[in-house]
Amino acid sequence: MIIKKNYFLIILVFSVLILVSVYSLEHFMNLPACKLCVYQRIPYFFLIVFSLISFVINKNGVLFFCSFLCFCSSFVISLFHSLVERGMVKFEIGCVSSNKDFTNIDDLRNFLEHVPITKCDEIIFSFLGFSLANLNLIISIFAIILSIYSIKFYEKTT
Question: From 117's CA, which of 36, 104, 148, 152 has a CA 20 to 30 Å away?
Answer without folding.
Answer: 104
